[in-house]
Amino acid sequence: MNISQDNLDRIIELRRLLHSCPDLSLNEYGTIRILQEFLQENTSLKIVDMDGWFYAVAEAGDAEPIAFRAELDALPMDECISLPYASGNAGVSHKCGHDGHMAALCGLALELENTEVDRTVYLIFQPAEETEQGAVLCADLIHEKGIDEIYAFHNLSAYPEGSIVYRKNLTQPASEGVMIRMHGKQSHASAPEEGSSPAMAIAELALFACGLADNSPAGMALCTIVGMECGDGDFGISPGEGSINVTLRAEEESFMKEMESKFLNKAEELAAQYNLHTEHEIHDYFPETRNNDEALQKIIRKATEIGLSVIEMEELWRASEDFGHFLKICPGAIFYIGNGNDYPALHTGNYDFNDRILETAINMFLALC
Question: pTM for the full model?
C-alpha cells in the first residue's frame, strides 16, 4: 500500500504552501481557504464549511462512519531557519507540525478517490488545538453524523523516522493555565506601611506552588510557574498590583482540579493576610487523552500489516492535546510517527515538519479506513 508519487509530490507541495502561510488559533481563515481549494480542485469530496473550521466527506457503504482529525493552527513563534517556503507571517510559524498533519489528511482524500471503502469517511480540519478551543467546536459532529471511531496522529521527535509510536490508555495528560491577579494599594517606597503591596503574597504563593503537585495519587503531576509580576522596578514606588501564572498538569483531571482548588484557596488566604483582593482566570483547559484499547489495537495491527516499525511509549508524552475531547465521546486513538532520533524538538526554532513521514501518515490513515 503506497501513495502514488504524483500524489505524494502534490502533498509535499501543499505542506510547504501551508507552512508559508501560517495562522494563529481561531484565525485560520487563510489556511482554510488553501485547504478547501486544494480539495475542490483535486477530489470529489463534499466540503462543509463551518465558519472557522470545516470537514470533508467521502460517502461510501453502510458501515458506521469513521473520522480523522488534523489541526489548522500555528504557533506565535518567529521562523528561525532559512527555508524556501519560510513563514510569510511575522511572529507566526508552524513549529508543531500541524502543516504536515493537514497535508496528510489531504493525502488521504486523494487516495480515497481511487480506493473502495465500505464506510463513510469524515476528514475534520479543526482549529485552535494549541489553545484547546478547537475540538469542543467540532465535537458535536460526532453525535450528529453517528461517527463510530476517530483517529489522529502527531509527529514526534526522538523516535526512529517513520516508526509508529503508541501508548496504551493515558497517552497525554490533562493541563490548564491558572492566572491570579492581586490588587492592593500603591504607596511611596519610603512608606510601604501606607499601602498594601502584593509582593510578599505572590512570593509565598510561588513557594506554595512548588509543592502543589506532591502526593499525586496517579503518577505524574506538575505545577509550573510560567509568569510572575509585581511592580515595574521603580525604586520610589511600593507596588499595588501583581500577578502569578502557573500551568497545572496531571495524569488525572480530578487531581489537577484539586491542585487548582488548593492554589486558589491559598491565594485567598494570603490576600486576607496582606489586605489584598484577588481575581483569577482559567486558560487552555486540556482534558486527559486516553486511547480506546480496541482502536489502539487496530492501529498496531494495521501498522504491522503494512510493514511499519511499531514502538510502545514507556512514559506518557507530557504535552497536552485537545483530541481528548473527542475520545471522551467516541472510541478512537491518537498515535505518533517518529521524526528521527536526532530530529529537532517540536516548539523549537530549528524544527520543520519532516516531509519524509507524510507517506507513512497517509498509508496509516488509509489502512484504518
Answer: 0.93
